[in-house]
Specification:
The protein has helices at about 25-35, 50-60, 70-80, 85-90, 105-110, 115-125, 160-175, 175-190, 245-255; strands at about 10-15, 40-45, 65-70, 95-100, 130-140, 145-150, 155-160, 195-200, 205-210, 210-215, 235-240, 265-270, 270-280, 285, 290, 295-310. By secondary structure, the protein is of the alpha+beta class. Strands 1, 2, 3, 4, 5, 6, 8, 9, 13 and 16 form a ten-stranded mixed beta sheet that branches. It has a six-stranded antiparallel beta sheet with strand order 12-11-10-7-14-15, with helices on one face. The longest helix is centred in the middle third of the chain and has 16 residues, at about 160-175.
């Protein structure tokens, strides 16, 4: 039924959890697609586990334009599926996004915004392609298996990874991105707030207690605000343990885009980071909690590996 669909968009629709009209967003998007006479096939994800299956189905059936109607997690799954394919095949496929997720930071970086579907679809149909970088975390799991995971935004180690995990859960309750983050912060402030770490960045070795580390290929949810996903570099923010008043100031600066101005934030730029130790620290990849790596792990950048549709 879907064979040889090179001229159609393959659309993965990840619905929000709306008990009243779960398909309201799709109905709006569908009207725009029909009005623009865009040929497409749409498949709705049933759960996060089904996203990779659907993306692989689109790839296997010859779709050259794959659009994610969803958030950062679905995009993360999509790029990881693409990176499992030969480079020649990957270079023939363009990935795009219509933001609809709990977290849409990578879409916002390119100025794709929820509620602006007409503009987004008009940009996507012009098929302006930018080759983007992906970060990659390489680690060993509890089964002693060597694993890796690609990311568009960032890897978080420590407090922010725990907050991002709570934020994802509380966003479903509160709806508001800002309110969910503040609630998560208040819940976490009484938890463990610093971790024993041993990190190598360029020629520097950081061996001390650290509150959180962000390693970003893009803006890293505000923690690596100068990072761009096409310069072959990773931006790193290492945050030492501040006083409570400084911590509150830090979250204010995070929300206002001035995170690097905080006295406890130490920024770096590099192509790889070696984490030799991060005792009891959670690790998040693009806002989703990763099973805690066992032992040392490495994070590096792979340059210009995915075609991404950007605004015209």
């Amino acid at each position: 039924m879907m064979n040889n669909q090179s001229d159609k968009w393959g659309i993965l629709y990840c619905p929000k959890h709306d008990i009243f009209r779960p398909n309201k967003r799709w109905e709006k998007i569908e009207k725009i697609l029909i009005a623009r006479q865009i040929a497409y096939d749409k498949v709705q994800s049933e759960s996060s586990a089904s996203v990779e299956r659907i993306i692989n189905m689109f790839i296997d059936n010859g779709y050259k334009t794959i659009i994610i109607v969803g958030g950062d997690s679905a995009l993360n799954d999509a790029v990881n599926c693409l990176m499992m394919r030969p480079r020649e095949l990957r270079e023939s496929i363009a990935l795009g996004v219509i933001p609809n997720g709990v977290m849409n930071d990578f879409a916002r970086y390119w100025d794709f915004r929820v509620g602006n579907e007409e503009q987004t679809i008009d940009w996507l149909r012009q098929r302006r392609i930018r080759k983007i970088d992906l970060g990659c975390i390489r680690y060993t799991n509890k089964k002693n298996e060597r694993c890796h995971r690609y990311f568009l935004n960032c890897v978080n180690i420590g407090l922010i990874a725990a907050i991002m995990n709570l934020r994802r859960q509380t966003r479903r309750l509160f709806g508001s991105r800002t309110l969910s983050f503040i609630t998560s912060f208040l819940l976490m402030i009484f938890q463990r707030m610093e971790y024993k770490m041993d990190i190598r960045i360029n020629t520097e070795r950081i061996k001390r207690r650290v509150m959180t580390v962000c390693i970003g290929s893009a803006r890293g949810y505000g923690q690596t605000p100068n990072a761009v996903p096409y310069n072959g570099m990773l931006d790193v923010s290492v945050v030492y343990h501040p006083e409570v008043t400084q911590l509150i100031e830090g979250f204010y600066l995070l929300f206002t885009g001035k995170f690097l101005n905080h006295r406890s934030v130490h920024p770096y730029r590099t192509q790889e980071v070696f984490v030799d130790e991060a005792v009891h620290a959670m690790v998040g990849v693009d806002g989703r909690l990763l099973n805690t790596p066992v032992g040392p792990f490495k994070i590096n950048i792979e340059q210009e590996v995915v075609n991404f549709l950007i605004p015209a």
